[in-house]
Amino acid sequence: MNVADANSLDAVAGARLDRVELSIGGIDLVRFRDYAHSFPRHSHDFFTIGVFSTGNGRIGHRGTSWSADDGSILAVSPEEVHTAEPRRDRGWTYTAMYPTPDFVARAFSDEERGSTFFPEPIFHDDDLAKRIVSTQRALMEPAPALDAEVMLLDVLRTLGERHGVRPTGRGHLVTSSRAVRVARTYLNEHFTSPVKLAELASVCDVSPYHLVRSFRDAIGMPPHAYLTQIRSNHARDLILRGVPVSTAAYRCGFADQSHLTRTFKRIFGVTPGAYVLASRRASTRGN
């Protein structure tokens, strides 16, 4: 499969993100071309579904390193911690879509949703890879038609049926201890304020060392990295609603706009400004 041609990537190296508003909700689409960006240990609050073209690298997921080969599919569930390291001679070249759990819940009933947890982040399925690329191309049209939405739902359903498993809870979070559950709740409720380790351990009624070790084992990252992820996710949501980057930084607990911008690009691969432009392009398409 010549995914390089099918991807219809921009001619220049870099990254582009587009937000598409559909009748069933909004979805982010991203395209990378020779983009030499290393993604640190992180997670998302949305599904990451994409197809690799040329170059690429390796994905770290649950203690295993996976090769992102040409034509392979990337499928990562929400809150699954992973890393992404490009090859030294070439950057990432792939297309991906980011449907949120809410988007999937609106599109399917509980019975129709099927298996939506992906135990392996990379696999080969040539037929499905072609359909994913074709779907993303259709969604990128100035005014996505009904058939594009149907294509998207068919792809999501097929992906879950062929490569997903029915989760017994929330993936690796199912085995979290009480201390980890309390810590996660506390961090989600206090992300706008400075949080100290001693304070967090006291709330969880465990030693600081025990909390850090348990949290890292259960979540895949230490508490401070998880807090940064929460802040970045909230900042992204504010920016998409038209809130200035400087205001989003203040509201989400970042030191300043520069701090948010650096963190945002490190985690999402693009700057907050790219999300602003994507949102504007989505509004233009809808007119």
SS element count, helices: 12
- H/E element sequence: HEEEEEEEEEHHEHHHHHHHHH
The class by helix and strand makeup works out as: alpha+beta
CATH class categorisation of the largest domain: Mainly Beta
Low-confidence parts, pLDDT < 50 over ≥5 residues? 1-12, 169-175
Instruction: Let me know the largest β-sheet.
Output: 6 strands, antiparallel
CATH homologous superfamily identity of the largest domain = Jelly Rolls
Any idea how many domains?
2
Instruction: Let me know the number of strands.
Output: 10
What is the rounded distance between the termini? Answer: 36 Å
Q: Which CATH architecture of the largest domain?
A: Sandwich
**Range of helix content:** 40-55%
**What is the averaged pLDDT score?**
84
Q: In one word, what is the shape?
A: globular
Strand content: 15-25%
User: What is the CA-based Rg, rounded?
Assistant: 19 Å
